[in-house]
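Hi everyone, sorry if this is the wrong subforum. Our group has a chain we'd like a structural model of before ordering constructs, and none of us has done structure prediction before. Sequence below.
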Amino acid sequence: MAMDDALEIVSFTAGGYRFAVEARQVDHQFASAPDAVVAVETLLGLPPASAVRRCWLGVGQHGVEVDGPVDLRSLPVSAIHPLPELVAVRLQLNGVRALAFEAESPLLLVDLRALLA
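Answer:
Right subforum, don't worry. Here is the predicted structure as tokens:
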């Protein structure tokens, strides 16, 4: 990979943490709550959300409710790191695949399609 390679991501917040999913996993964003929706906190194993600002992502046949803002952007591949082994074995969040840092802030990369399967 070239040094300027980037991964297109969709970022959001859940449980006070910043998460991102590879953009190709998100088919669309709903303007309002779809009929069938699952909260991302349920998928990740976090306590239920109490935030007022909610957004809905279309992931396959599912509507996934997340905290906004929802951003589509590029993340340099050089900012993405595998989970340290100690963190990986102790992490109690479902679906976390990697860790990235943006301006010294952690960003957890998740696989929503695997969680919904």
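For your construct planning: The first helix runs from residue 40 to 44. Residues 9 and 23 are 4 Å apart (CA to CA).
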